[in-house]
Amino acid sequence: MTGSLCDVLPAAAALLGVPGAPDRLALAEAAGDRVDRVLVVLVDGLGWHLLPELAAGAPLLSSVLAGGSGRLTRLACTFPSTTPTSLVSLGTGARPGEHGILGFTLNVPGTDRVLNHILWRDDPPYAAWQPLPTWFGRLERAGVAAHAVLPAAFMGSGLTDAAYRGARFVPTLPGDDYAAALTATLRSAPGLVYGYTADLDTAAHVAGIGSPAWHGAAARVDALLTRLVEELPAGAVLLVIADHGGLNVGPDARIDLDADPRLAAGVRVVAGEPRVRHLHTEAGAAADVRAAWAGILGDRAQVHSREEAVASGVFGPVDPRHAARIGDVVVTCTGDLAVLATAHEPPETARLIGFHGAATPAEMAIPLIVRRG
């Protein structure tokens, strides 16, 4: 079975008895009967194709991969395969064209401003930029408690509101026992509890997939999940998911658009991220920019006009209110290419080793693990 990240919370809601919630992932079959609590843990960067490599130092994940415990299913995240987009697709059950979070960064239409969704606080207004309700709010309105146990630093941000609007927030601090916080919240009342860990993704970006730091992060994630399985109360089910996968990009597979006048010509605003670029062009320059990028990148990327990108369906149905957030030209890397923008982005972006965002299986395929205690 192949499903979508968008299907996870509706299926969890169906498991908890919410009327009209669709269970497209057959969770009821995997979870068994008498379920009154669902714990959803999103492991940032836990791509499907990475499971065999990290399994050596991760006993629980190794057992799941070998078919020894729980049910393992391959899902797909939404495009672009980037954290802000995926978190909001998870929370709303909708594709990016519908909810409007169409990339890691986006141009605010009518301006030259680029919104970084990780740093988004209160401008643009939350409900205007992401207008859809979330499944956390739907659960609450159906009388089912929905908690999100998240770092206190996430509280009050635009991305938190866009992805988890309507949840009961339980803030945690860096020194807190996160497994204990999740378990205590799960035991406090029937319903849904959501948790998130960025440890693996951070190690992939900074040190690279397969590095000692990445394997160390995988071991810590595995230890967290093992504790959660061991401490699940009766009637509880654990769902482990991810927001995207990833791949390493070597020094020879990087292009800096700001170092090549041919690529910079006619470009007014650069958004997106190194694997998927939204290029907003000067008036009348879109066709020339598209032709220049297609000629230079060749088969290393797909270069589309906005209209072509929308028509391809890669973003799902695009709400007309969100269309201008998509670049006049959309560049999607197809191999291991990364398109840097050193004059437009913080210098640490160019120092990253692991990347994601594009539509390759290594980036889009994610696991769904279903476990009872």
From TrEMBL:
Q: Which domain of life is it from?
A: Bacteria
SUPFAM superfamilies linked: Alkaline phosphatase-like
Record InterPro entries: Alkaline_phosphatase_core_sf, Phosphodiest/P_Trfase
Q: By its UniProt entry, which Pfam families does this protein fall under?
A: Phosphodiest (PF01663)
Name of the featured protein = Alkaline phosphatase family protein
> What species does this protein belong to?
Mycobacterium servetii
